[in-house]
Amino acid sequence: MDQGLWVTVDRYLADTLIPADHNMAEALDANACAGLPAIDVAPNQGKLLHLIARVQGAKRILEIGTLGGYSSIWLARALPSDGQLITLELDPKHAAVAANNIRRAGLSSLVDIRVGPALESLEKLAAENPAPFDFIFLDADKPNNPNYLDWALRFSRPGTVIIGDNVVREGEIVDKNSTDERVAGTRTFLEKLGTHPRLDATAIQTVGSKGYDGFALAVVKP
Most buried of the four, 16, 33, 91, 156, by CB within 10 Å? Predict the structure, then answer.
């Protein structure tokens, strides 16, 4: 088995289970034209986020790491008409591309894009004393994942779903001596998930068009 087969299977799954979507295709094209890194979630992964948010009945979603808004669109589509997605993006160029993609998808009224370092944006958000979020997606710089988890818990309630992306990193996660800050941050993140008294968590390895990786899923305990 190899990357070529994984890509072919992902394409088959997407073609079979996910109807063609003009807005999603345009978002990916716009991201590529703007020179954004091609690190969006795959269509079947985006649909998984969407379905989990729907099963959760989420009305309030927090996303850390917007990029071009591809995953944001999937998540916002899971919201009711009175829901809200707050998404945090470091790069103003990425945020502008995301805003255009979200506007074309007809979701601007549901999505609040906040630009700047995520930890600073989270501090500002805390000052607003927001209502708890029902669903939180962590997909930004991996060295800060332990800090993002702390903030996620601060903004959560019993039953909140927290998903962290890219937690396997082609298997490098098992190397406790890795000098890669992304691996070290992810290991600390996973260890916090496993030991935190407020969380029940697991992680799943994945292969597909985005390579060999995985995601972690946690639920805040009552």
Answer: 156
Distance CA 211, CA 7 (A): 8
Domains of the chain: 3-220 (3.40.50.150)
Selection from 84, 200, 74 nearest residue 132 by Cα:
84
Chain centre to alpha carbon of residue 142: 12
Q: Which amino acid is at 45?
A: Q
Residue 167: alpha-carbon gap to chain centroid: 12
Strand runs labelled E in the chain: 60-64, 84-89, 111-115, 135-138, 161-165, 199-208, 211-220
Residues of the chain with pLDDT under 70: 1
Q: In degrees rounded to 5, what are phi and psi of residue 78?
A: -85, -10
- Burial class of residue 79 in the structure, from the number of CB atoms within 10 Å of its CB (0-12 exposed, 13-18 middle, 19+ buried): buried
Phi, psi of 202 (to 5 degrees): -150, 175
Q: To the nearest whole percent, how much of the chain has pLDDT over 90?
A: 99
Least Cα distance to 121 among 151, 158, 164 occurs for 151
Confidence (pTM): 0.96
Show the CA angle centred on residue 30, arms to residues 99 and 186, nearest 5°. 75
Tokens 């088959």 label which residue?
Answer: 12
Spatial strand order of the sheet with 199-208 comes to 111-115, 84-89, 60-64, 135-138, 161-165, 211-220, 199-208
User: Which residues sit opposite 135 in a β-bridge?
Assistant: 61, 161
Give the whole-angstrom CA distance, residue 167 versus residue 172. Answer: 9
